[in-house]
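Weekly puzzle thread! Below is a chain. First person to post its structure in token form gets bragging rights.
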Amino acid sequence: MPATEPVIARRYTRSDPRGSYPRITGAPEPAVNRVALFWRPIVDLTPSPHAGLRMRMLHPVARWLAEPKDGRIVWFSRIGVPGLRRQVLRHAGLDPYDCSGPPGLAEDLRTPDWRNLVAVLERFGELDDHLRALVVFHLAQLSFTEYALRLTGDVEPTGEAGRDHYAYQVARAHSRVPGHTDRAVRVFERIASTTPDPRLAVLAAAQGVSHAVRGKGETALAHRFEGLGLAVEMAADSWHGHLARSRFHRALALLRMVERDLGGMRRELRTAWWCNDQLFAAPADEVSTMVAVENRRILLESEIKAASRAASDVPPGTVREWCGELERMDPDCVETRLVLGDGYAAANDLPRAARWYAAAGELGTSDGAVGWFRAGQAFDRLGERERAVQAMGRCLELDTTAVEPRRYLKEAASDGD
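Winning reply:
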């Protein structure tokens, strides 16, 4: 498990590598917009009970910007894909909300949190480094990545706590932009080597491992970051230390999987889980609990991905249990829905996989297009040709450059001649 040949192709190819996301017209305003219901925080910073976990994390950061506190550090992990907000607005039919940065949103569309963000940006040069780091992270959450990088320029770590955290967040923003990986990795290596904050050193090492593998395909570089992370001494009972270590060993699990060291991958994941469990062992405030839940959610995703992409002896029942917990934890996230589809496909439950792929497609964006593509394949393998045709058509509605869905529809049309 899983089969040597994947049941579902993960992605379609594009006739234009940039993709093409058509605009929906005549859609209702955000409060009653079907797509915006799930993406409302990224549209105008309005909380929504139907938003995914990462979307819900925009609210506490907005609150921190409204009520700043000296030395505050953001510990959330996930940030947005550059341009994600623009994809959402196109597929939700909310063109008036489209802008290249927060100040570009029309005054009459700004919520109180949005107005405060613009006010903070207007005095960005006066902020201390801790608050600048928070602003950069928030902009990346909103997928205003390129705006954030224009605002900051390159930022180098200096060994001062605030500046190192600021440089770390800017490097994370760089790591999301094509062609900027080398710049980000260089900063991560400096931070992992020189910062006096052991938590940040381990987090930077984790970032270095991940981007060396994913962005550069350089396992030797990843091992160099592994050595930097393992060399850091940290208090054994530190809550944030356990968080950093969990993320670090999760990154090492990815490295082991790429190297086809499946036993090593499982050992790293066990260590990441143990560190994660310590986050729930002591009382925590609301935001720290959100951070811990986010970390557990990513670990579940890592387990399911490992089971669906690598040869593994994990039984289907265990994969279903992981999927069940992830389903309860974050069912309204497009990425979660794709992972659930992959997990159920790996557990030989193709009907349920198809439903989750289609559910991902309902949320729009490029990930939604991928969801419809996978759903189409699943329905085809289930012999449900009409639903497969509909799914491939929905994929093309979200991304007109999709090659395989277009081919499938042409073949389906010719079959009916």
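Puzzle host: Confirmed. Bonus trivia for everyone else. Confidence is low (pLDDT under 50) at residues 1-5.
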